[in-house]
Amino acid sequence: MSLRSSAEIFEDLKHRLSDVMPEFELRLKAELASEILKLKEEKNAVILGHNYMEPALFHTVPDLKGDSLELSRLAAEADRDIIVFCGVRFMAETAKILNPAKMVLLPTKKGGCSLASSITAQDVRDLKQKFPGVPVVAYINTYAEVKAESDICCTSSNAAAVVESLHKDSVIFIPDEYLARNVAIETGKHIIVPTKEKKESGDLDYQMIGWHGRCEVHELFTLEDIDNIRQQFPDVMILAHPECSPEVVAAADFSGSTSAMVRVVRQTAAPRYLLLTECAMGDNIIAENREKELLRLCSVRCPHMNEITLQETRDALLYGQYVINIPESIRVKAARSLERMLAVG
């Protein structure tokens, strides 16, 4: 298989992104991308790219792209020696949990996440002690130790299906408060968030127990934003990620995972679109759907996703950094929760 030259990559990026970044920057990024593609072949590596990656990276080096659920499945099936995960740490951990024989590299030293950092394994143990016998559903935006303490994982695209698959009167859903509240609405469950209700757990009527974590990006979108946008563009179709507040989700025209948003834009013919999610994704979608009009009124970027660059991806392959390692005792238990999720679909 012949590799694309930097000149070919530049022409493609120019076609897709000429209105996003200047030509000299596109040339530099094309040269980096060309170097990465060569290293990828030399090292027998596969590159996974989350939908939130910056456009020049997203449209050049990943072999496989998608949301957390899609990439979890792909990571489990990857047959190259090395997996480079262009996403944040919990995503790279997921790849290692599901495919432990492979070397997994994260192209940043940190790759944090406000949701993943909002809860610890001890917090989960405390919840299970307060609510004995209630199964724990862990959003995939958690670290391996938390997944290991949980019964099953979920993503934003299959969260309701996972909750319903348990056939239980009550569930613990961690750590995203807004996603939990949106899933509670979808599944018809009464939710409490004990750390906010300030009552003893025994006094509360509940079918879902949430946690107080929030995505630092999605919690910034407000009803006022939607009202202002609709006043300016009454015919806009607004798509909101389910990590947004229930009020924002209810006011939007569609709510779903990042890949679901991509499909909606591809398959519908609205006059114009606005995505209420990490804003690099809007550039990624418009680069593939040049005939569609996406409103670029969003300037909200995830600082952690923003750490992943073409240069860091090149260095990950060149120097074998940063390697994801998970203790086997934790990995085995976390794998059980992830495999149960994948079985649900």
Written account of the structure:
The chain has 16 helices and twelve strands. The chain has three domains: 6-112 and 306-319, Rossmann fold; 116-214, NadA-like (Rossmann fold, 3-Layer(aba) Sandwich), CATH 3.40.50.10800; 218-301, NadA-like (Rossmann fold), CATH 3.40.50. The protein is α/β, with parallel strands linked by helices. Helices cover 45% and strands 13% of the residues. It is globular. Helix 4 packs parallel to helix 5 (89-98) and helix 8 (159-165) crosses helix 9.
Brief descriptors of the model:
single chain, 345 residues, Rossmann fold, 3 domains, 12 strands, globular
What letter string, H or E per element, gives the SSE order? HHEHEHEHEHEHEHEHEHEHEHEHEHHH
Structural class: alpha/beta
Euclidean distance between termini CA atoms: 33 Å
Q: Radius of gyration, Cα only, in angstroms? A: 20 Å
Question: What order do the strands of the largest sheet run in, or round the barrel if closed?
Answer: 6-5-7-9-8
The shape, in one word, is globular
Proportion in helices: 40-55%
What amount of the residues lies in strands? 5-15%
List the domain count as a whole number.
3
- The CATH architecture term of the largest domain is 3-Layer(aba) Sandwich
Poorly predicted parts: none
Give me the secondary-structure topology.
Blueprint: H1 6-17, H2 23-43, E1 45-50, H3 55-58, E2 64-66, H4 68-77, E3 82-86, H5 89-98, E4 103-105, H6 121-130, E5 136-139, H7 144-148, E6 152-154, H8 159-165, E7 171-174, H9 177-187, E8 191-192, H10 194-197, E9 208-209, H11 223-232, E10 236-240, H12 246-251, E11 254-255, H13 258-267, E12 272-276, H14 280-288, H15 310-319, H16 328-344
Helix pairs in contact: 1-2, 2-15, 4-5, 5-16, 8-9
